[in-house]
Amino acid sequence: MRALVREMMRTGTKLVVPAGVVAQVFRDRRRQVALNALLDQESSVVPVMDRTLAEAIGTLCGRVGTSDVVDASVVLVARRERATVVTSDSGDLRALDPSLKLEQI
Fold first, then answer.
1. What is the spatial distance between Cα 87 and Cα 105, in angstroms, rounded to a whole number?
2. Contact yes or no for 68/89 (Cβ under 8 A)
3. What CA–CA distance (Å, rounded) separates 85 from 78?
């Protein structure tokens, strides 16, 4: 994650973090120091989860048969932003979208 922060700062890459991911981080900020540092960067964006996105998340969960709305939000926001997802847990995300661009850490 530290290397990711350095590379993001060097290249000016926009970091998009779904609101549900931020909520998970704030359950225990001490365990997510690196992600919290990323969120503090000016180039970080936390998109609003509006009704349209919330309904799409629920629809995706229903279609795939999962109840993890945070993972589904990651997939849908990544699709919308045409972004690569950086994750340590790619299995659940792949189940939601096998074609998702992932960077495993």
1. 6
2. no
3. 7
